[in-house]
Amino acid sequence: MSNDQPSAILLTPAILVVSPLANQKKIAISFLNSQLSWKFSPNSLQLRWLNQEQNKISIEMIRDLIGELAYAAHMGKSRAFIFLYSEQISIAAQHALLKSLEEPPVNTQLILITSLPSQFLPTIRSRCLTYYYQSTNELPINITLPEILEALFSNPKSVNYHQLVDLANEYKDREQAIALIQQSLITLHNQQQTTSKNRQIQLQTILLRTLQNLKANVNVCLALEHCFFTIKK
Question: Is the pLDDT of residue 3 over 60?
Fold first, then answer.
């Protein structure tokens, strides 16, 4: 799809989870090019950058955006609205944004970029596709999950605690453990059609908490064991 595509296309909003020091604009452009084949430059008039000043995003700003989205729907061109440092969207503003995420205008890509996805309401996360980016790479992480972990997600009773301890001990390197949890979040999202919404939210909360612990230098094996045991309960 090119950025002058005339047909009406509905695009699922996206959350891009990045490292705190990442170049968020650069990653947004990379996402649009790789995922949608849009060839926008950072200064394109079809890109709307929000919160470049890294301020708190209020409900008034979201209400203004909703009006802008309605106008964009009548322009007949593909457009992207990109929230930088979107963890700064207030809770009230997140509630106001829900409707636009649930029913975005045609040919409009909404993107929330953050290093703190846990700041989003579960309802925000459930309406978006989430992509996790390595700190040293602008491509989404993509690794194969161990069969035991896939079984843990789909049928916790089929896995015993001894297997989970062994699995946790396989990951001594913190970056590998972080990549494992990030890929688990992507896999979980892809399974949303076969997993109940309550279970999705529960698992996502556990995984995001584990991701925070790993980034806070909690012991790798202990963090993974706690994660796996909590999912099995």
Answer: no
